[in-house]
Write a structure and sequence with these properties.
223 residues; two-stranded antiparallel sheet; 52% helix; 2 domains; two-stranded parallel sheet; single chain
Amino acid sequence: MDISAAAYEWNHARQLMAIRLAEASGAADRAALERGIYDRKFLQPRPLLDALEGSPAVLLIDELDRADEPFEAFLLEILADFQITIPELGTVKAATPPVVIITSNRTREVHDAVRRRCLYHWVDYPDAARERAILKLRAPGLPEALSAQVVAFVQKLREGDYFKLPGVAETIDWAQALAALDAKALEQGAVDETLGVLLKYQDDIAKLKGEEAARLIAEARAG
């Protein structure tokens, strides 16, 4: 992710066309030509600039931890002053500051300078009741018994030591995969066959498959 993808980019094709047209018309004032090709009409706004220039907006910067550190540094001006400095044009400041929401999955630590400009809020996995409600909304045709057992299984699984614990999206996908196999309740065979939907690392699958999965299935069915 860089500035041209996130904030703004000059339309080089239109700028080149403007230069060619000026040359063809006999324009000889080089300074005026240079000023002209950096006119606002040649600027292509990206989401960050759109959020500052548009009507009151909500700006979502999702999974900032997957961007590089130079991009974080560029964000500091926006988060501190709600403005972007474009060297060729000047500073664009928001008339109405957007509401900015930044998410991070902690694949790396976000810089302290960004943290200082944020109100921190931890979003944990939902409890069983909320996850069942989400599953009922996103997979309405799922048998009630299977839905309850899937959620109980995943909730127990998240207590274990795995490289990447499944999120709600994986719960939904796994439940739909089991339903596609005509499962009405958790069974060892169907669970082992579909663990690749729930877990995304081979070491995690190998650790869960077999006896550990059987234990979690028994606890989920009992619950």
